[in-house]
Amino acid sequence: MAGTITHRLSALGLELPEVVAPLAAYVPATRVGNQVWTSGQLPLVDGSLPATGKVGAEVSEDQGYELARRACLNALAAIDALVGLDNVTRVIKVVGFVASAPGFTGQPKVINGVSELIGEVFGDAGAHARSAVGVAVLPLDSPVEIEIIVEVADVAT
């Protein structure tokens, strides 16, 4: 049904941000056949990070969760700009990186910010495979970075 994802976003009170400009030599998303792969997306808001540092130290697990949701919206904006979100037929995979303080093991809970948002937006088509990885540091000292791979309908690019 045309407009379903866009309608769901609106009903949830969510608005896609402008596509985040790449920080280096890459594109925000690329299409290969019937899949779209996003580049790593940070939780940038108007060009800035709302928080920096490690989850489990400077950033709480709950803040990390919210930052992951924001990074997800940025990834969805990149997909929308490339092929239109209403052409997504299913979410295939989410990869989440969490800049983690020593001993922090709550990466899955942080990346649930992405998975739960995808479930709200895509319903059953949002069921996906996932990795949640703790890392020492991320670009710009971001607490989280995410990538999404989706399947899309056969539409012209």
From TrEMBL:
Name the source organism: Corynebacterium lipophiloflavum (strain ATCC 700352 / DSM 44291 / CCUG 37336 / JCM 10383 / DMMZ 1944)
SUPFAM superfamilies per the record?
A: YjgF-like (SSF55298)
Protein's name according to its UniProt entry: Endoribonuclease L-PSP
Which residue ranges does the record assign to the Endoribonuclease L-PSP/chorismate mutase-like domain?
8-147
Extract the Gene3D superfamilies matched here. Answer: RutC-like
Q: Which Pfam families match?
A: YjgF_endoribonc (PF14588)
Highest classification ranks of the organism: Bacteria, Bacillati, Actinomycetota, Actinomycetes, Mycobacteriales
By its UniProt entry, which CDD domains does this protein fall under?
A: YjgF_YER057c_UK114_like_1 (cd02199)
